[in-house]
Design brief:
SH3 type barrels, 10% helix, 34% strand
Length: 297
């Protein structure tokens, strides 16, 4: 079996895990973790080493559609960002799972600061490398930055196809007191290059090898901004903080989640919340209000 057919089969096996996920609804914690585990297995497959998907050049972004739901449900993409690519703070208006395949990407998470100005404040930094998983809710705001000089490959699973989401500008925010990105395109913005699969009727569509033609100028999930950035921001916890960085905690009820505190957040609805990295699935991060957590001895 060649690499192309082997990878196509693994993508198909992952798609089978998405059965029962209804379009427009949030999956249960158990289903979300099952999909995260499956996405990690796919991301760490040896088949990616010699895959035919072209890696992005410095300052370039490439988007490959791997599996599209026929009913605007969960859809899977391969994203390659070149060195110096940074995305503006944005949300997805649907849940998302991101897993690293190659290279390292810094994800900055934000909390609301001023609704009328659509401004946010950075709260947490999570670096995603090979096999790491980031779980985002529909309203979560994040930005990305390629770490180091190597282009990245990441798998992105969204609750809805990107084509069904509002335009990127409508989902972007301005970061206060940290990295600031204009909501208007700048001269440094470059149109993204996307690869679309052939149509396979009304069933799930997935692609085993990259298409030969590219559609230029498609506005994809991220847009390229060639700027530098500092990683030396000091994140301040809510005061007083119930838990400190590195403390072991677990969910009090519902789906099991136990791990270490890796960050804080604060909103009007959740004055004190925490980002918890799973100790059973290193690299997987979930956020919870303080009332949902308890300390583990």
């Amino acid at each position: 079996m060649d690499r192309t057919s082997g990878l196509s089969e693994q993508i198909g096996a992952f798609v089978a895990l998405l059965d029962g996920v209804c379009p427009g609804s949030d999956p249960s914690d158990e289903k979300l973790q099952s999909m995260a585990d499956g996405l990690r297995r796919l991301a760490t497959s040896a088949e990616w080493q010699d895959c035919q998907y072209r890696e992005a050049e410095p300052g370039e972004e490439r988007l490959y559609e791997l599996a599209l739901s026929p009913c605007d449900g969960p859809s899977l993409y391969l994203v390659s960002d070149g060195a110096a690519v940074v995305s503006r703070p944005h949300n997805h208006e649907t849940w998302a799972l991101i897993s690293g395949v190659r290279g390292r990407e810094v994800n900055r998470l934000y909390i609301a600061h001023h609704s009328k100005r659509r401004s946010v404040v950075q709260s947490t930094i999570v670096e995603i490398g090979p096999g790491d998983i980031l779980i985002l809710n529909a309203a979560d705001v994040h930005s990305t930055e390629v770490a180091g000089g190597r282009s990245t490959f990441h798998l992105h699973l969204y609750g809805r196809p990107l084509r069904s989401l509002p335009a990127l500008d409508a989902r972007c925010y301005v970061a206060e007191g940290g990295l600031n990105f204009s909501l208007e395109p700048t001269a440094a913005d470059k149109p993204a290059t996307a690869v679309r699969p052939r149509r396979l009727g009304h069933a799930w569509k997935h692609l085993g090898a990259p298409a030969e033609s590219f559609q230029k100028g498609l506005t994809m999930e991220q847009d390229s901004v060639a700027v530098g950035a500092s990683n030396d921001h000091q994140i301040q916890p809510p005061l007083p903080a119930t838990f400190g960085l590195g403390e072991r905690v677990r969910k009090k009820s519902g789906a099991a989640w136990q791990g270490h505190i890796v960050g804080w957040y604060s909103t009007k609805l959740t004055p004190e919340g925490y980002a918890v990295e799973s100790e059973s699935h290193p690299g997987s991060v979930q956020i919870y209000p303080v009332a949902a957590l308890e300390r583990v001895a």
